[in-house]
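As a warm-up, study this chain.
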Amino acid sequence: MIRALKFIGIFLAVAAGIYAVAIIPNFSAFKTLFTNTEGMREGSEWIEKTFSLQGLTEYIGANKERVSVVSYEVNQPDSGIYFQEDVPRAMGTIQNFFLLAEYERQVEEGIISPGTPVDMEEVNRFGLPQISESIHKEALNALSERTDAAPTIDELVSVMVQFNDLSISNWLWYTLTPSRIDSLMLNLELSQTDSLAPFSGIYLSLRESNEPTRTLQRQLAQRFAEDPGYREQMTNIFKEDRIGFSFTEERDALEFFPKTTAAEMARVMAALWNNALISPAVDERIKQKMGWALGTKTMNKHFDGYGAMYDNRMGLLGGIDFGVSTYDKKPRVQAIFFDRLPVAFWLHMSAGHMHEDYQQRLIWDPALLDATLTQIANND
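Now compare it with the structure written out below.
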């Protein structure tokens, strides 16, 4: 018992440091952090059990209300994992996939020129203080390493896909125009996927209403984009107190994010893989941008091809991907969501990028796939 308490204490101290440095790096953030002591213990009983992906499969099997997993071979969709596949889950930045698709569609139609330079000051004003700011800085650093000149819109979209940058996503929403994004969603005939909203509007709406609607989210996002006075007011409020929520309340607010299902997003990945989503030319460019994750020595060892988009925000870890293992040469598509996670357990998984590791390895490691199926069956 003493050993367990000591372990949890050390973990919470380390996790607090990670959260403060990586996500909300300023003095008010530390104040917020230390008023969330109770939330920081939530789910701690699973931490010591899940320092391996084998342990993570145990969590998956025992927590079906919080996890959806779909993973199957493109040419054998009847075989694979279908776990809580039709349960609505918050998309988070997985919704940026549809912005990527609409961007490539407009490039194909000649509406957008991919080489158009973009003023980053214009992009920066679409971001909210203390909402994924560190990720935006990482994205800016990546852009600065590519060129000293103003980045092109194509470079911005590539960085958005890799880093899940909310400022770029918010800006791109209005560059593409909401009506065309809605048209894409209708054309894709996604019966299990909600209409989308800019992230600025989603977070602003959490301060405005106890039950924000998609209409309100879009209205507030547009006001933030177009009304300098309102933007300054909200910027100051978020600098001072972020969204004004405890960690557990922020996690529970995922209820108001646009939702999808693992089954539908896996079908989207399968259509993309087969060049049957929008058009062969558009689909190939989408896959190319999602291929940012391939290139390291370790990834090249296990994959002949791989593409992904992930998300990581309070209480939510998720991803969509496609890949071909070097071992069996069979293309596989996946959609995996860890939703409404206990705060301490989310910190544990987030710090180690466990969901990304799990998702990648599930494609090339049949032992992990079997372990997942076994835990699901044991807890059915």
